[in-house]
TrEMBL record:
InterPro entries: Isochorismatase-like_dom, Isochorismatase-like_hydrls, Isochorismatase-like_sf. SUPFAM superfamilies: Isochorismatase-like hydrolases. Keywords: Hydrolase. It comes from the Bacteria. It comes from Reichenbachiella faecimaris. Residues 5-177 form the Isochorismatase-like domain. PANTHER family: ISOCHORISMATASE HYDROLASE (PTHR43540:SF1), PEROXYUREIDOACRYLATE/UREIDOACRYLATE AMIDOHYDROLASE-RELATED (PTHR43540). This is Nicotinamidase-related amidase.
Amino acid sequence: MTNKALLLIDIQNGLDEVEFYGGQRNNPNAEANCSKILNLFRENKWPIFHVRHNSTNPESPLHPSKSGNQIKSMVAPIDDEPVIEKNVNSAFVGTNLKGLLDVEQIDQLIIVGLTTEHCVSTSARMAANLGYQVTVVSDATAAFNKVGIAGERYEAEVIHLTTLATLQGEFAEIMDTQTVLDELSI
């Protein structure tokens, strides 16, 4: 039997400051989709873990001294839902996340949050390397525009889809929100 948990990564107010992160972002409904999955987990009393990025850069909207560090209200933790505090891309490095998952005997992680190309991807890869069965929810994640090594511009949607393609099969199963909700409701 699979013991599943929801991992909500860096769904913080500061990520609305798109200019700091490269401008345009894709998937404007990502947070609403995160909330749908979160609500199903809450209804079923399944384990939920929130992750908050505490940037070490004092200029970052995610620095602990800034209001942008707060988790967005639509997915904010309630009751005793744990919040994992991190300051690197992986939710597993320098945190007690693995220990908490082990106590709950979790072997499957459903990952949502921001951003696809950074903390979602890094955490999904590390989770797979640690032996977890990982699902990344494609429309409950989002990416930002990027500038390449030669100054070329890459649209957020290209970054998002390419990142998901590099995860698919080797590190994670990629599903959309409705598929995840349907499979969890069986």
